[in-house]
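thread: overnight batch results

M.L. [08:02]
morning all. the overnight job finished for the chain we discussed friday. pasting input first so we're all looking at the same thing
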Amino acid sequence: MKTTSLKSALRAMATFLFTAAAPISLVMTDAAAEEKLRVAAVFETPIEEPWVNQIHVALKQAEKELGIEYTWSESVKAADFARVMREYAEGGYRLVMGDAFGAERIARRVAKSYPDIAFTFGSGIGPAEPNFAVFDNWIHEPAYLAGMIAGKLTKKDTVGTVAAMTIPEVNRLSNAFCAGAKEVNPAVKCKFSFIGSFFDPPKAKEAALAQIEQGVDVIYAERFGVIEAAAEKGIPAIGNMSDQWELAPDTVVTSVVWDMWPTVKQVVSQVKAGVFTSQDFGQFSYMGKGGSFLAPFHEWDSKLPSEVKDLIAQRKAEILDGTFRVPIDESAPKSE
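M.L. [08:03]
and the structure it wrote out:
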């Protein structure tokens, strides 16, 4: 055998062995590399629901900054979830994202059928080999800061939270908010209401009005609809997921913001590079990664006492430099 032929054979064998052990889609043809990465999202709720909207906004940003081709399906019922996921998987989409909480088993079962497609879903449990990655809104840190503000603002020593349901990812935000309020005001009592839905603004508003009747004078709007009640009754509110200041400028003190861009950027970059693996992307929602933060005070910047703003700035700095760790309490909150 000629030397050149031997070298060619060795290169071929090395390529084969490398390909066999590679992560999903690691080896791409020149044609595939030139094509735009096609990304789809499957959402259980309407796109206006703040949780999924943050994912959608980040994917739209990836469309502009990372050159992906993006499409989505919203308000997908459990009975249709598998069909929609399969249509995208078989339609040339190499990455499928979304929220799997209400369709957890369905999403995981479909992913197993398409091992060469990357699936990354919001989930309260872990990733699954070889191709099902997860993320979640780990925004308990700014929720704690918001609670500190509430603890300083309340005049009746009673703060409230209206949230979706008693599941770990909701519980940790509600508990963090209460813990922050109690840190600065040990006399504070916390009230909690759960509407049993991820998106039911009328029910959330009704629950908020009931809390206000019970003495709550600062409220955390973990769900959409609460701010409207707070505005009607003239009490301060804390928004959630996005900066919700514009919904009621005189009412919304700040918002606990979830920025999905760091997560989406990481996922898309890995898939494009062919190095995507099943993993938990939750860390990219922490404040230190830029995945969550407390929104500006806007109209309330001049209303909040300087000592309160200084207190929040100090605690924020301690969270970012690692000298203060917000406790993660995922137990079901109980009203006091």
